[in-house]
Amino acid sequence: MNKGRGIFFIITGAVFWGIGGTVAKKLFQQYGIDMGWFVTIRLLIAGLLLLIVHILKKGATEIFEIWKDKKLSFQLLIFGLVGMLGVQYTYMASIESGNAAVATLLQYLAPVMIILYLLARKQSIPTRKDMYTVSLALLGCFFLLTNGSLSQLSVPSDAVVWGILSGIALAFYTLYAVRFLEKYDSVVIVGWAMLIGGVALSFVHPPWQMNIKGLPLEACLYLIFVIVFGTMLAFWFYIESLNSLSPKESSLLGSLEPLAAVLTTVFWLKEPLGWFQWIGTFCILAMILVLAFNRDTSSNR
Questions:
Q1: Are 278 and 140 a contacting pair, CB within 8 Å?
Q2: What pLDDT digit, counting tens, does each position of 168-201 carry?
Q3: How large is the C-alpha radius of gyration of the chain?
Q4: Which three-class secondary structure state does DSSP give residue 204?
Q5: Angle between helices 35-58 and 186-202 (to 10 degrees)
Q6: DSSP code, position 294
Q7: How far apart are CA 161 and CA 215, in angstroms?
Q8: DSSP letter for each residue of 6-20
Q9: pTM to 2 decimals?
């Protein structure tokens, strides 16, 4: 029964993540929502909600404990500004320039970037799994971005650049987060990181400058969905699934996120992928499955 509960949480969370990106694209495209303002609001509200959830479940002690350690508190600031804000801003910029399907699949290249980084630092030696992973990633990217054409990209170049930067930011986020998770709850770390990123971005995109009253009800509901379901609940459900599933099982079922992004982009937003782009999509999904079957630690995104 506990395992069934965990499966429900991880599938629901992964689907929320994937659909959230597609809904964000609709907000940018149809309702003219400013991307920078959207990221600011998303980080501020989702971060605050996560910290409130932790307080309700475990009390407020751990929430402020990390700020008593000067070294870790400085590192948390770096994590919030470079890791969390970097991931969220570049991912949404890629969605705004292109679509949620391509942005999500490019972001999922982060594990390959981590592999290459560790190999370059000589912290690991190449394995057969690494070769399969990198090969699938490169082949998938080629077909996804070119649709089989050697002369031009099938998606805007801005979306490609932002998507690759999103993968790099997620790789940094994943590697840098390890130092916190040995001592503090991931909900606390991510909640604070979101607040830090949101506060910093507020100086560039003040949240009060958007006229929400002028938005139709449908747009407001979409906005609530992305912030509450596509961000806060998606992360919380992922963490909850780890109480009854192994990290490997959660990682495997978490691969539904890019699939949800692809399907909603194609069938809801009516932005079709070419045949070669579908092949590229399946290559990247296969890469995720290869990693999931061999994964020993969980993601904390």
A1: no
A2: 999 998 888 888 877 888 899 999 999 999 999 9
A3: 19
A4: coil
A5: 150
A6: T
A7: 31
A8: HHHHHHHHHHHHHHH
A9: 0.88
